[in-house]
Specification:
- Two copies of one chain form a homodimer.
- The radius of gyration of chain A is 19 Å and the shape is globular.
- The first copy, chain A, is about 20% helix and about 30% strand.
């Protein structure tokens, strides 16, 4: 049996989820907290790597090791709290069978990219939204976003030089919604290539600004050419919002 | 002429607005930034003191000194930005006559107290909401809040030992609203005694929890006895939300 752990974190202070030597990462913080609680090192695996500065409203990881199966896993959020920094929170947890795989069993993930669309920063959104001071037309953004929905080879929307695995993914939905002076772009897919959400959202902004023509989007996708897609937006506007598994986990 | 400056700030890192020796305060940060911009010390006055850790979504201060009246004051937000820490933002600014007083000309101020009403913390509301894990009934909170609206002697709702100035204030409105797992309490008055909002909100929670009876509220107010009112809630849930002047300032 493994313990499945639902986390939320403000990624501002972390070099992403994955352990990278001695750098502060979420995986390291969670591993250290579990070590403090159980007195043994557990193997912690995450549902996704997230980049430095990316946030998560929902993130799953599993912990495995010689855990006493009598441990009431649903008490973990309260038991581990004192060992975690304030910017990482365990929302819930429970036992899952060894056959459960926190990464491969994901059906789809939803990311949100948050844009602060005004000329002046907001002290409550520092490192939590991307300040974009030019006009944003959600109508245009949504028309552009619709062109990406479905199954495509997203090679043009992957950080150049990254990975060699397959680049065909299926986007379930992709849309932008304004609330006051923020614009939240939500995108869900069965998987994402490296930097894909940040490049997709940069492409929407480039269509909004007229740098890329709406009519050219199918051609940009078909080209598989990174140089024809939009800019990679900064990490601090990005949130992993929701992770949905093939089987219900709670 | 003075420059009227509209600020917003995350107060987590500051010992309130008012200068206190060498401690980091918002007044000191703004004064230092204006000094860097203009090359001279200006006299900065605020619309309110705020306590250590209290936030402001809207706060006004004025800056006076030998300022060149040709300076386009409405450019200040952009000009001063590079000299301010990220958690303090100048939203707008313009020239006002010397007769304008940033504190005495306030008609009323609105504060918000933000409660996170769930059992587990939220990494995005650390130092920005008060975690209250017990049931909150907004109906009861609102019934209790209505008892305070109007003109009363609020001595029972002032930090004991604070100030000797008059303690009669007029509350314009006072109500609680739930959005998901947060409850926002808003209160507006022509002035507030020291810690008054935090004690009023603590009193609402004590009525909610049954520690203070609804019927006793008029008696608690009339007693002018601090010991009969509720607890002082922590500063980090409190926001100065809006400041309204006798005359329109923008």
């Amino acid at each position: 049996m493994k313990i499945l752990i639902e986390l939320a974190y403000d990624g501002s202070a972390y070099h992403g989820f994955q352990v990278q030597g001695d750098k502060p990462t979420v995986q390291k913080a969670v591993g250290d907290a579990l070590f403090s609680l159980f007195g043994q090192r557990l193997s912690v695996s995450g549902c996704s790597r997230t980049d430095s500065g990316v946030h998560a409203r929902q993130f799953f990881c599993t912990a495995e090791g010689a855990l006493p199966e009598s441990f009431p896993a649903e008490r973990l959020p309260f038991a581990v709290r004192r060992y975690l920094p304030e910017d990482i929170v365990v929302l819930s947890s429970h036992w899952v069978p060894d056959s459960f795989h926190v990464r491969y069993d994901v059906l789809y993930k939803e990311y949100e990219y948050l844009i602060l669309n005004r000329s002046i920063s907001d002290p409550f959104l520092v490192k939590r939204a991307y300040l974009f001071p030019y006009p944003v037309d959600e109508g245009i953004m949504n028309e552009a976003a619709a062109c990406f929905v479905g199954t495509h080879d997203f090679s043009a929307f992957r950080a150049s030089g990254s990975g060699t695995e397959g680049s065909v993914r299926t986007i379930k939905y992709f849309s932008a919604q304004r609330r006051g002076d923020t614009v939240a772009i939500k995108v869900a897919a069965d998987g994402f290539l490296y930097n894909m959400v940040r490049i997709l959202c940069g492409t929407l902004l480039d269509v909004n600004s007229g740098v890329i023509r709406m009519d050219d989007i199918p051609g940009v996708i078909a080209s598989c050419d990174r140089s024809r897609a939009g800019a990679t937006l900064p990490a601090h506007g990005l949130y992993l919002n929701r992770v949905v598994y093939r089987q219900p986990v709670f």
